[in-house]
């Protein structure tokens, strides 16, 4: 997932260890573009046995956060990628106690040079 071409869909998956993804925690995606601050992308969580999501306004319409409880994973899909999506992407979890296990992956959106 290190290189995504413009207009493609950026897809990242985070595998949860130590907790069940359906345990009630919030499962979060954040990114940090080069030289910039952190940007909250969205969150997913199980409530009353259904998967719920809330997305950041800057990427509304391009983002999807999904979960696979059988694999204990949650994923980020960001469609129509541009160079503005180049960033370090973090998956994390949080509760009211701010429990957090950040992991990161660097993703660059770049067209291939001749």
TrEMBL record:
<dbReference type="InterPro" id="IPR003599">
    <property type="entry name" value="Ig_sub"/>
</dbReference>
<dbReference type="InterPro" id="IPR050199">
    <property type="entry name" value="IgHV"/>
</dbReference>
<dbReference type="InterPro" id="IPR013783">
    <property type="entry name" value="Ig-like_fold"/>
</dbReference>
<dbReference type="Pfam" id="PF07686">
    <property type="entry name" value="V-set"/>
</dbReference>
<dbReference type="GO" id="GO:0019814">
    <property type="term" value="C:immunoglobulin complex"/>
</dbReference>
<keyword id="KW-0391">Immunity</keyword>
<dbReference type="GO" id="GO:0005576">
    <property type="term" value="C:extracellular region"/>
</dbReference>
<dbReference type="InterPro" id="IPR007110">
    <property type="entry name" value="Ig-like_dom"/>
</dbReference>
<protein>
    <recommendedName>
        <fullName>Ig-like domain-containing protein</fullName>
    </recommendedName>
</protein>
<keyword id="KW-1280">Immunoglobulin</keyword>
<keyword id="KW-1064">Adaptive immunity</keyword>
<dbReference type="InterPro" id="IPR036179">
    <property type="entry name" value="Ig-like_dom_sf"/>
</dbReference>
<dbReference type="GO" id="GO:0002250">
    <property type="term" value="P:adaptive immune response"/>
</dbReference>
<dbReference type="InterPro" id="IPR013106">
    <property type="entry name" value="Ig_V-set"/>
</dbReference>
<feature type="domain" description="Ig-like">
    <location>
        <begin position="1"/>
        <end position="107"/>
    </location>
</feature>
């Amino acid at each position: 997932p290190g290189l995504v071409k413009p207009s493609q869909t950026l897809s990242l998956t985070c595998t949860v260890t130590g907790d069940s993804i359906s345990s009630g925690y919030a499962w979060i995606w954040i990114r940090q573009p080069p030289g910039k601050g952190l940007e909250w992308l969205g969150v997913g969580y199980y409530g009353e046995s259904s998967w719920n999501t809330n997305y950041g306004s800057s990427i509304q319409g391009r983002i999807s956060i999904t979960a696979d409880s059988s694999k204990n994973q949650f994923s980020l899909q960001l469609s129509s990628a541009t160079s503005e999506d180049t960033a370090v992407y973090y998956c994390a979890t949080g509760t009211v106690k701010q429990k957090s296990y950040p992991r990161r992956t660097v993703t660059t959106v770049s067209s291939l040079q001749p």
